[in-house]
Amino acid sequence: MSSNSARPGSSGESLRNSCNDLARTLARLPVSIMEGLSRSIPRRRSHLRPPPPPQGLPPPPPVFVPEELFFFSAFEQRCGERHPFFYGCRFADALRAARREGKLVFVYLHDPDHPYTDPFCRGTLCADVVVQFLDANFVSWGAVCDRGEGPGMVASLQPGSFPFCAVVAPVSDESIAVIQQVEGPVSPSELVEILQRTIEEQGAAFRSSVPDEQEALAAALRSSRAAAEEDERRRSTQRLRQEQDAAYLESLRKDQASLSFEIAHEKERSRKSLQEETAKSRAGNEVRPRYPGRVAREPNKTAQIKASPAPKESAPSHRTEADTKVLIRLPNGERRQQSFHHTDTIREIYSYVDSLRIQGIGSYQLVRSYPRKTYGHQQMGMTLRDAGFYPSVTLYIEQLQ
């Protein structure tokens, strides 16, 4: 867009007001712009030159102004405090701020010696409608043409005349897209119209094409948080497994201690019973007959009658004596204990479990937990001593699918 209009004080001369085509330029910034122009700009002046003091008074001390704030300070001294918010930073920092906020950058190159500079700054840039529109929709940045980063920006944007404004979008760390250029003086309404059309036609496209750093940061934060949650979940699972193992080992230790106590108690009771029977037998043998001559042969007959079946009765009782304690843990957590002979087979244990008629057990197998070993149909004929169950063992019922 370009327009020509006559301005007061121009002696009828038609002033050129040029607004170049939208998004027509892709400007590659010098490396010095992105690195602070350390090599391409003149040596920085560290302070402003104050006005000469009245004669007879000593000069005031120099006022030190950082180079990044030189434009801001010079513009405010010239036009007052009512103006758009210009970022007082390097151009690269302004680009990063625009990327974070999802906005375009409004660039103003200030030529303090141009005759149209003061009317444009006071009448257009400082107008309320322009100030409000720029602050709401752009990241505004300015530079003096012959100070700081100004020469580098002039070389990159190559303005045809002043005042000069441009709307740019960050493309990469080394280049920007010049979406709009406004050259020469324009009124506040014209500038707002140009900027509004630029946002509507090109702003959304460039914002969608520029990587959203906030979204990338949010994605990285979500990924880090998910990794931390996964790590905490893994540690919780490991702690739970360790606690379960410790509880199982403690339960096994208690079961073994209880079984050992029961075995010792049973042995002590058997020993006492045997001692009582022995004592009774001795007491019976010591009884003397009242008539020795007549009944001398009778005790022998009685002894023969009682002694003859003794071997037949004692042998079966010895074979059927329960000397192996088997503790069985059911799937619901209950326990059942049964005594077997060490010559019995594992089939007798299965028959005992079947006799319990446990609800919902279905097909199952017996398992020894530590060390883990399964006793299924192939081990049915194995004796309890051969299986290592003597004198005690704890078995688990493991349901089969």
From TrEMBL:
GO BP annotations, alphabetical order: ERAD pathway
Regions of compositional bias (Basic and acidic residues) in chain numbering: 227-241, 263-300
Span of domain UBX: 319-397
Comp. bias regions, Low complexity: 217-226
GO CC terms: endoplasmic reticulum
One of the record's GO molecular function terms: ubiquitin binding
Domain of life of the source: Eukaryota
Spans annotated as Disordered: 217-241, 263-322
Cited Pfam families: FAF1, UBX
Matches recorded under PANTHER family: FAS-ASSOCIATED PROTEIN (PTHR23322), UBIQUITIN-ASSOCIATED (UBA) PROTEIN-RELATED (PTHR23322:SF71)
Name of the molecule in the record: UBX domain-containing protein
